[in-house]
Amino acid sequence: MLVVDESRLSRMRAPLRFACRRARATGSRLALVGVYEPPRGEYAWLSAAQAIRGEAKTDFGTALAQLAENAAGCTGEAPMVLLREGDPAQEVCALIDADPGICNVIVGLDVRPSAMGGPPPSATALLNSHCNRLRVPVTVVPRHMTDSEVDMIS
Questions:
Q1: SS3 at position 90
Q2: Which of 4, 24, 134, 139 has its CA 20 to 30 A from that of 95?
Q3: What InterPro entries does the entry give (predicted)?
């Protein structure tokens, strides 16, 4: 299962390649999981919140569909695409709890301190506060890796 961070969609090449190669090598089906957070604060009014939710879902869903198309080209099989609203780490943990077939969680991480303002919140929460809840390993793939570097380790 590859956790897709909506704030870093343009930097998913290495994590997606790793996840695809791992799925192909193990005979598994890849799942792409995207979680967007609900609107907060001033957008809590019902009509504004609904509009923002709809836009976030549409935009993120479109981006996930593009990643899924790329993944299908690599694995030969369309991945499952799961789009959720809520706290990213909690939603990922809930999916893991609900599906015993999930055997690995893959997250992309910007390992350079200045890159993109630090690690994505979903990865930080999974690796810190939710780590004790996980029953599967978490594989961290540095986003700056080249295709040949990913190929060497997958």
A1: helix
A2: 24
A3: Rossmann-like_a/b/a_fold (IPR014729)
Cβ neighbours of residue 146 under 8 Å, at least 6 residues apart?
14
Residue 9: other Cβ atoms inside 10 A: 15
pLDDT tens by residue, the chain, 154 residues: 999 876 667 789 999 999 999 999 999 999 999 987 776 655 556 666 566 566 666 778 888 899 999 999 999 999 999 999 888 888 888 999 999 999 999 998 876 655 555 556 666 666 666 667 788 998 989 989 999 999 999 8
Sign (positive/negative) of CA torsion 60, 65, 67, 68? positive
Question: Residues near 114 by Cβ (< 8 Å), separated by ≥ 6?
Answer: none
Q: Tell me the residue range of the domain where 77 lies.
A: 2-153
CATH no. for residue 132?
3.40.50.620
- Structural domain total, the chain: 1
